Amino acid sequence: MFTERYRLWYEHEKAANALMLDMVESVPPVNHADPRFQRAIDLVAHLAVCRENWLDRIINNGANQKDWMPQSEKWGMMRKRYADVERAWTLYLGDLSDGDIAKDFKFIRSDNSEYSLLTETQLTQMVGHAFYHRGQVVMLVADLGGDTVDTDYLFWVESR
Question: Alpha-carbon distance 106 to 117, whole Å?
Answer without folding.
Answer: 7
